[in-house]
């Protein structure tokens, strides 16, 4: 049974950026970052109005093809509701096409804001698992999406049951001593474009290497930050993508020369440094000198939603 939402409802969601892979954890490990997008939605009598401020303004479509709008429509379908019209306002701080999970944030935020609408109608809201499943269907894999939903660190995986694909994720508590530095360039990159650089098959030796490092990375993130350098080594995707983003590949080499566990953030071109100390001055200064904005971040929160009021802190 489908319920029509009344006109005049307002809801808000706030969703974090994320970094996936973290070196060896290809399509499985992720972490939320303290950089947030906000979505405000109002039900109206008819039509669709989309407004975008900040990142992506003047560049993304302002119609039903907008990713946030598509996610809202999917969320309403899952919740069993319709709306005669919508005003969707997006206030974006997460840079687009930089490997910081902007598309996952758009989808998760769009799905979550539906909860703020249906709660006012006295209907059941989407659970965290619902949000992981629905958002991962957009992404095709749950690493960024689950980090945006759950916040903190996540281990994600996929289960196939006949023709059904189930996306799962479990949170991990990131050690409080770990500090995160994101180096964000002006240049952009497409996940689809860089994924084609990856080989269809890998050797047993490379698979074994990454399995050991991914397992070790969970230990390093939660209990043993002193193991981060070894735990973030990767042979499956970062070397293969290096030619497409030479500046990022060189920054990784610089960080690691100074003993900092640097990784490509998602498919790049942003770089994420994980450390328990300050960045060495030379490594920090290398960023701005070579087109990167370097910012210290904290571990991001889970997606938040509210009915009628802003939830951005």
From TrEMBL:
Keywords: Amino-acid biosynthesis, ATP-binding, Cytoplasm, Kinase, Nucleotide-binding, Threonine biosynthesis, Transferase. Its main location: cytoplasm. GO terms for cellular component: cytoplasm. One of its GO terms (biological process) is threonine biosynthetic process. Residues 230-284 form the GHMP kinase C-terminal domain. It is an enzyme of class 2 (transferase). Residues 67-152 form the GHMP kinase N-terminal domain. Its EC number is 2.7.1.39. ATP binds at residues 95-105. It is found in: Cytoplasm. It catalyses: L-homoserine + ATP = O-phospho-L-homoserine + ADP + H(+). Pathway: Amino-acid biosynthesis; L-threonine biosynthesis; L-threonine from L-aspartate: step 4/5. One of its GO terms (molecular function) is ATP binding. HAMAP family: Homoser_kinase (MF_00384). Belongs to the GHMP kinase family. Homoserine kinase subfamily. Catalyzes the ATP-dependent phosphorylation of L-homoserine to L-homoserine phosphate. This is Homoserine kinase. The gene is thrB.
């Amino acid at each position: 049974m489908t319920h029509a939402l009344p006109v005049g409802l307002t809801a808000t969601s706030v969703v974090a950026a994320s970094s996936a892979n973290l070196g060896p954890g290809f399509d499985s490990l992720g972490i939320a970052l303290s950089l947030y997008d906000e979505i405000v939605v109002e039900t109206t009598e008819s039509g669709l109005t989309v407004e975008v401020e900040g990142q992506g303004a003047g560049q993304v479509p302002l119609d039903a093809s907008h990713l946030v709008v598509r996610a809202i429509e999917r969320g309403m379908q899952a919740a069993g509701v319709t709306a005669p019209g919508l005003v969707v306002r997006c206030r974006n701080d997460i840079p687009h096409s930089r490997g910081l999970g902007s598309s996952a944030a758009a989808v998760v935020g769009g799905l979550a804001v539906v909860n703020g609408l249906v709660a006012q109608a006295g209907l059941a809201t989407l659970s965290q698992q619902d949000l992981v499943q629905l958002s991962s269907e957009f992404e095709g894999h749950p690493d960024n999406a689950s980090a945006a939903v759950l916040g903190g660190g996540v281990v994600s995986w996929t289960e196939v049951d006949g023709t059904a694909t189930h996306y799962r994720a479990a949170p991990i508590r990131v050690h409080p001593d770990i500090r995160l530095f994101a180096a964000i360039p002006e240049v952009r990159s497409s996940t689809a474009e860089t994924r084609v650089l990856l080989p269809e098959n890998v050797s047993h030796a490379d698979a074994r290497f990454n399995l050991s490092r991914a397992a070790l990375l969970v230990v390093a993130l939660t209990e043993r930050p002193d193991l981060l350098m070894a735990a973030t080594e990767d042979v499956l995707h970062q070397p293969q993508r290096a030619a497409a983003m030479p500046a990022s590949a060189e920054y990784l080499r610089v960080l690691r020369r100074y003993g900092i566990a640097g990784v490509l953030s998602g498919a790049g071109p942003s770089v994420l440094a994980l450390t328990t100390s300050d960045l060495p001055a030379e490594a920090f200064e290398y960023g701005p000198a070579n087109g990167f904005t370097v910012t210290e971040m904290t571990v991001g929160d889970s997606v938040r939603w509210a009915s009628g009021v802003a939830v951005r802190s």
